[in-house]
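Q: Please design a sequence for this.
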């Protein structure tokens, strides 16, 4: 469960096993990542009962989807990609989902996606 002392922040990526445990991904969906998109203040607020997440594929980042250049698609780059052709996660507004804060038991974000 998340509370006011949470270390979770907007833009952090869930570990694959946590996304599977929450029922967001299946074990086989390793090409997809789950990103926290709730604002930091909403994550800490007890008045906000849920956490917003977006499921997106690993992709080769494209500049026309970076830095909010596109209204519905965003490529989030990470500093040390495992592969040059998979250096970003594609976030689309229509892939957003919510989970109740009481069901969110993930302790740490995925250190591979910083």
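A: Design:
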């Amino acid at each position: 469960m998340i509370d006011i002392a949470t270390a979770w922040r907007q833009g952090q990526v869930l570990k694959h096993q946590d996304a599977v445990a929450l029922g967001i991904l299946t074990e086989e969906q390793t090409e997809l990542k789950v990103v926290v998109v709730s604002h930091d203040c909403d994550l800490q607020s007890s008045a906000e009962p849920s956490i917003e997440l977006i499921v997106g594929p690993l992709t080769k980042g494209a500049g026309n989807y970076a830095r909010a250049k596109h209204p519905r698609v965003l490529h989030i780059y990470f500093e040390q990609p495992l592969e040059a052709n998979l250096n970003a996660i594609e976030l689309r507004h229509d892939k957003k989902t919510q989970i109740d804060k009481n069901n969110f038991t993930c302790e740490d974000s995925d250190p591979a996606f910083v």
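Q: Thanks. Anything notable?
A: The helical segments are 16-21, 40-44. The beta strands are 32-36, 50-59, 73-77, 88-92, 96-100.
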